[in-house]
Amino acid sequence: MWGSFFRMGFRVLMRQKNYFLLNLAGLTIGIVAFVFIYLYVENALYYDRSWKNYPHIYRVNETYSTGGKEEKMALTPYLLADTLKNNFPEILQSTRLFFTDPSDKNDVSSVNYRGKMYDIPNLTIGDARVFKVFNYRFTEGNPDSCLLNPNSMVISTTMKQKIFGNKPALGKKLKTSIRAYTVSGVFDNKNRPSHLEFDAIISFSSLDKKEQKQLNTNWFWMNCYTYVELADTVNVREFIQRANYFAHMAIGKFVKKQKIKINGYMHLAFQPIQDIHFSQGLLYDSHSNINMTYLYIFVIVALFILLMASINYINFATARSLKRVREIGVRKVMGVFRKQLMLQYISESLIITFTAFILSLSLVELLMPVFNSLVNRQITLVDSLFTGSGLVFGMILIIFMLLLALFSGSFPAFVLSSLQPVEVLGGRGLIFRGRKKHSFTAAGLRKFLVVIQYLVAIGVIISTLVIFAQIHYVKNRPLGFDKKDVVVINSPADTSFRGRASAFVAALKSDTAIEQVATASSLPGYLTEKILVRTSDSSAGHLQTLDGFFVGYHYFNLLKIPLAKGEYFSSAKKNDSVEHFIINEAAVRFLRLEHPLGSYLHTPYTKKGIIIGVVKNFNFSSLHQQIEPLIFMLKPQFVQYVVVRINPYERKEALAHIRNVWKKYNKGYTMYYTFLDQKLDTLYRSDQKMLSLFFYFSLFVIFISALGLFGLSSFLIEQRSKEISIRKVLGGSEKQIVLMLVKEYVVLVLVAGLLILPVVYFFIGKWLQSFAYHINMSLCYFVGGIVLVLLVAFVTVLLKALFMVRKRPVEALKYE
Amino acid sequence: MIETKQLKKVFKSADIETVALAGIDLKVEEADFVSVMGPSGCGKTTLLNLLGMIDVASSGSYRFMGKEVYNLNEKQITRLRKENIGFVFQNFNLIEELSIWENIELPLIYQGIKKSERKRRVREVIDRLEITHRKDLLPVQLSGGQQQRVAVARAIVTRPRLLLADEPTGNLDSMHGEEVMNILDELNKEGMTIVMVTHSHHDASYSRRIVHLFDGQIINENLNRV
Ligand SMILES: Nc1ncnc2c1ncn2[C@@H]1O[C@H](COP(=O)(O)OP(=O)(O)OP(=O)(O)O)[C@@H](O)[C@H]1O
Ligand SMILES: [Mg+2]
User: Fold this and answer.
1) Residues of B in contact with A816 (CB under 8 A)
2) What residues of chain A lie within 8 A of the CB of B52, using their CB?
3) Is some CB atom of chain A closer than 8 A to the CB atom of B46?
4) Dist. CA A164–CA A167, nearest whole Å
5) How many CB atoms lie within 10 A of CB A208?
6) Which residues contact A412 (CB under 8 A, 6 or more apart)?
7) Could you give the ipTM of this predicted complex?
8) What is the value of pTM for the model shown?
9) Which domains does chain B have, with CATH numbers?
10) N or C: which end of chain A has fewer CB within 10 A?
11) Which residues, chain by chain, have CB under 5 Å from ion ligand 2?
């Protein structure tokens, strides 16, 4: 019996191709969007939950304050892990990974294998116990011992594939410019969503002995992520208290030994590892972290998209089947045929939903690479949808489709049975028409559904506009220095470079395409040093923390950082008995210096220094943050970066020249360089990502709501074809009639716009607050969003309305 | 006022061609009152549609008030119709969403007539057709006869120079039918040109002229009351 229904269904759908395609497209797009968002959210929630003992693994974060300024960061001193583990038996395991910034790499990040250079995107240093806590599957080597020996390197399967292909990697040598590493293991990081993103790890024992010793004694040198695995019987709260007390004592001892005074505190926080992906506001935290609020927004948008698609679908199906009922004659429908007709509708619905299901899954699979690169994930459909919790989701999706088919198939029949036959025969619009006693609620419902669609569409579009404007703003706001045409070259890690640095700089200057060259340990947008200083008259002699840059001569001229007072560093005035400092205006205020020029500052580890200049405030970190107090120390020998201002009209020549000089002075080293403005743009990576996600949301939502409106309005206008003809005969002009048809929808869009306004204002306002410098939410974004949706709605309805109005009146009048 | 020459209308569907009108030569003078009679399916409604410019002939010419209609564009036709022609459809064609009052008022709105004037005119016709107390109802809430009177009211409210009426008494009992015919008669006397389709010889007796249609052709024209 079903067979014949389906055969018939196919025939009907083939005859009504437009209806079929419209419905299919809407439903498919809806499911595609929904599945993508599901995959993203599921993946995010699964972050760091694949470690064998993940409920008991914690990352140790640190809050510290010196001189009244509190900072929270994900980094801790190297010695913390061992110190804790040696004193607390409830710590089963501890390990640490060094902080690295993948967007700021030098020659050591590329390895040479058989004469070919390979870039390692994310290379870090770890202690020997990394793989005891993080139980990656090893395809080669032993996870327990692979990081014990000096000069060992463990690489990911992806890296291994890139360098060695299918040949074994174990024991092979990979050379960097300073030493050769032996591959001691290969780990598989597939299907392991984690905040850990390293592609290779070097053993801690590879560091030179002096450095190791310093790391093992200094409490102020915070450069490691520390992870601890606690026994499951531990009372965590109580443990944290004891650990903090212990650390407090240890630091106190260390400070005393250093003979320094600090007015501050340090607090350790133990963050469950599965929470890291959603943590915000910690310095040096993983770049892939996401804001939980975004996740909620995504889920809401996904549900709305699916809801919209379903509503449209049901609306469509009902509208169409009612039309058909009128053709068949309602008495038959009410009587014997009702059940069969219902089955017929359901089988047609099943065909559409099933096709949409298959089509959308194929589309998802097809678009997966695009999606993955967009959200920076490695999600696979098969793994996510048909295993574990995904299986449940897959089942739910299938059940949902079945229900949708069932409901949209039987809905018209329900509507019919609630009506008197004569009303149906009267040929009136039933549920979709206004101003009739029994259809009042249905007309309201229809308007409500349209408003909801526009609500979402307008909300998403306004958000996209504001995000776009803000990102445009942060990228173009004057920062207080000139970021354009500046090339930043990462110096070779090899200390021997210091010897030839000045020759390298001189050689760079020799081309006319190069305007200026300077050296520095840091730049705007890069990591800064934290420097402890104390003013001469700070009575108790307490230290305060400032951000610090070590720079060479010409630095300020090159970046065009203007002076507020005093002068820049110059070699002529250099005095060996005292350091020269320059501070920014924020530091003047922070240190409460009334006459900064000529004041002395003391630091625990260098000679005292004299302030010779004050520079105007400039933004040296992201615009999410205010301008912090900053100190520049003159250290021409610190050449972590060679900064080059090039002639903008000779970019090519300049870069070629830089490459040539690099080759001459740093043979065999890979040159990593970047343009300063591009590096600054990376500060807004997550904002940019949010923008692109919202952009795609907008497309989806606009598409689906336009489709829905087109279907609905087509139906409604077609139903009114007779009325349109009568109006024409009575003298209505095309313009008058089209305006009448369109007006109704325009009003709905405006209502939707007004309703969503406060919601968007609240949420997007919150997002904007995350920037210390942000645009004002002016009315024009709201108007822009509403106008855009209005335009889409207008065009959709207009298309159909024009088509109907152009028809000869007699065609519609004839029928009945 | 009206002059058609060899007006033809052929309906083509998938495989059959129906010749609804096979060359109509008809002349209607200003202030004339013409009845069109003939058996069902002979093309009466089709002819009225052509005269009312809501359909186009397959061939032939149609002059309305001295202008060749088929040389005009859509906009000009709309204007011509709006300003000069009133229509009573065989199946009423009232707008279901609009109340009786609004239905009757609509053509006045499209003519751009001011509200107070509209009110006055609508009141006048609904009084004349005795539907005043139903003015706020929707068409579905009326009987067929009442709907027919609304259709007549709507057609004459603009005081058109030409009234095209497709069986305006078809659904009315003899008393109400008589009333409508009296109104048409009065209007005609006031100078309105009327072309009316009817099956009733009694109604036709009000007109000055009767045109007999058969199979899309005029078989006989006779003057009624000279
Ligand atoms: N839109 C159309 N498509 C096809 N044929 C049509 C169409 N309209 C009318 N006809 C045909 O043209 C012929 C004349 O129809 P018309 O409606 O003018 O008849 P009528 O004289 O008004 O009949 P009645 O007295 O029943 O109203 C009929 O044979 C009819 O079937
Ligand atoms: Mg007829």
Assistant:
1) 91
2) 729
3) no
4) 6
5) 8
6) A317, A318, A321, A322, A325, A345
7) 0.89
8) 0.79
9) 2-94+160-223 (3.40.50.300)
10) N
11) B 45, 90
